[in-house]
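All the exercises in this workshop are built on plain-text protein records. The record below serves as our worked example for the rest of this section.
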Amino acid sequence: MSSLGFCLGLDSERGDGPVTAEERLAHALRARTDEEQALDRVRRYMRGLHDPSYMPRSHEGEFSGFRQEAIGNWLPLIVTTVAQNLYVEGYRDDEHPDNLSVWEYWVANGLSSRQMHVYRSALTYGHGYVMVWPGDPGPVARVYSPLAMYVVQEDPDAEFPDYAIRRSRSRVKNELGLVGDVWDLVDAEGVWSFWVPSGDYGNTREYRLLDSWTHPFGVCPVVVFRNQWTDDPDVRIAELGEVWPLIPLQDRLNDTTLGLLIAQQYAAFKQKWATGVEIPRDPETGRPIEPFEAAVNRLWTTASKDARFGEFTETDLTGYLASQESAIKQMATIAQVPPHYLLGGLVNISAEALAAAEAGLTRKVSERKAVFGEAWARVFRLLAFAAGQFEDAENTRARVVWRDTEARSLAASADALGKLATMLGIPAEALWELIPGVTPFQIRRWKRLKQQDMAMDVAEVAATLLRGDETQLPVEASGDSLPVEEGDLDGGD
C-alpha cells in the first residue's frame, strides 16, 4: 500500500480547477474572503459584541448606556448545551470489545479534551476541521476552526477535501519590508508554504514560496466536521451553524430588554406631581429650581393654599417580561433546546416528563453523533495510516463510541438493567457500559476485580478439595451451582 488514497480508491488529480499551487491558494483565499464577513459576525455575536439596539435619534446620552446592559447573550448557551452532550470515549469494532490500538494516538494528542473545540467550532461556525500529520514518536492531530482554515471540496460527498489552506503566521514582513501572512496549502501530495501580501490575494506574482514538503497519505489529510449537510453552493458556511439563524431573535431579545431597562429605570415607580406651587429660579442663571427633593425620608410641604399634590400610575412591566419570555421560547424552539434550559423554573417533574421535554434535544444530539462519528472514523484511519498500521487504516467497520449523556437517575437505570439481566438473560458484564456516567476505565477495573475474585474462589475450592473437607466449600461452589463429578475428585477422566 503506497497511500491512503490508493486504499480508498481516490484520484488525487480529480477536478478541473486551478493547476498550480499559487493558483489554488489564490482561489481558496478569494473564496474565504466571501465567507469571512459572515464568520466574523458570528464570532462577534458569540463574544457579546452585538449590533446596537434601536434608539430614536433624539435620545439623550444617558440612554446609550442601557444598550450594552440590554445585551443578554443566549447564543453561547445554545452551543454549549449541544456540545456538552457530545463526548467520544472509544473506538471499536465488532471483533474487538476493547478500543483498537489506534486509540493510543487519540490519547497522546489530547483529543479527549480537544474534541470539544471541534464540536464548538462546527456548531458555532458550521464547520470544524482536524488535520493529521506524521510525527515522532506518533502521528499528530490538530484541531482548527473556519477562522483559521478553509477547505475546497468540489464534491460534498467526498471523504476528504480537494485541498485546504491554513494561516500559520500573521503580519510577517518579506525581504522588501512588506507586511503579509503565511498561508499553507495542503493537498493530496504535500504542503506548500507561501508568504502572501495582506489583502492582495489576486496577484499571485507577489506570492513567495517559503517551503514545501510531501506526505504519504495520497489524500488531503483534513477531515471536515459539518454541523449540517447541504449541496447548495450558495449557502455560506456560517449559515450552517447554530448561531446564524438565531441572530435576529437575539437582536429582538436585546430590543425588548432595552425597553424593559428604560421603563424600569424611569417609569416603574409612581411619579409625583404638584400644582399651585411657585417655582423658584436661580438668581444667576435664571433657570428653574426643583422645589422638592424626592426621597423615601422626605415629605413635600408648601405654604401655598392653592397647592395640589398627586401621583401618576407606574408603568406595568408585565408586557415587557412576557415579550422577553416569548422571544426566549422561540429561540429554544428553533434551536431544539428545552425551554427550561434557558428559562429555568422546572422542578419536581417525573423522569418521563423530563424525557419528553428533552426529546427534541435528544434527537438533535443523535443526528450530530451520526455525522461527527463518521468524521472521527476518518480521523482514526488517517492516524492509523500515519503510524503505519495499514490494517486499521483499511478498517471501515470500526465506529466511535459515544458517552451516554441522557439525564437518567442511577436507581432507575440499575433497576432497568437488572431486569434485562434477569428476564432476558443478558450477561451483567455486557450491561455495565449502559450505566449512566460509567467510563471505559471503570469497566476495565471492574472486569479485573471480578477476575481476581473468581481466581480467589477457584483457589479456595482447590485447597478445600485437597484437604478432603467438602463441607467447607464456598456456597457458590457447593450444591447445584457447581456440580462436582465423581471423577473430578479422584482425578479420573
